[in-house]
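your task:
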Amino acid sequence: MKVIWSFCLVALFLFGGNGNATAGELSERLANFPQWEKLTSVQPAVGDLAYPEWMAGYWQVKSTLVDLVAPLAPDIVTPGFDANRKQLNQPISFLVRFIPKQSSISGLKGFSQIDKKSSKLVADRVFNSLNLARAYLGSEAVLSVKIDPNSPNRQITLLRGDRQLVSIVTARAIETTSKDRFITTEVFQQLFKGGSRPYLNTVESTTAYRQVSQSQPAIEADQVTAVYLSPQDPAYFTANSQPVALYRYRLEFSPSEIATTPED
């Protein structure tokens, strides 16, 4: 449970969806770490996130936990928080890819039906999440990653020992402050099943990507993941909408020519 918790937190930036934030709000939120409260200016999650074109292709990602805070400790501490201290300043590497996705745009023009195809860049969620999970937990521990065919915002990670992690993106926002900077935040529900009892909570992940010209790594990102108690938790009202755990990561993307698909 504790090891899986660490993976859950860092995996979230590989999801996607739409929604615009007030200009500068997400940047300010990252700057105010760890003084956070629950984000309110997000929109319901619909469809995939269109990433900027400079994120296209295969990337070797190095993810490093650089800080972690339990704002309400010692009264409230999430499962696995103390164990995650061992991850501090220990980089984890894995392969990801961002690919074009075709979508249909239908409408009426006069009396004629028109059907156009448009393309946007999206994260390959199965490929990315499977590589990431296996980097953290080992290939033997992670059986597969499944995406709901009816919703790109619902993902199930199947783990050995009849365990599974269900992640459902419920809301999100994006912010583009310049052509080489892209910020996104996502809020979702996590349900871990397979232990003595199911564990449910709410997670928010905010990531600022920055294209670095003519250098390695080619993309850098600052990511903060905040964990909130679910209404079912006995300490929910004590937390009063404050995060009970905050994790900050440094992400470094280097171009990769590797184009292998992880085995299911």
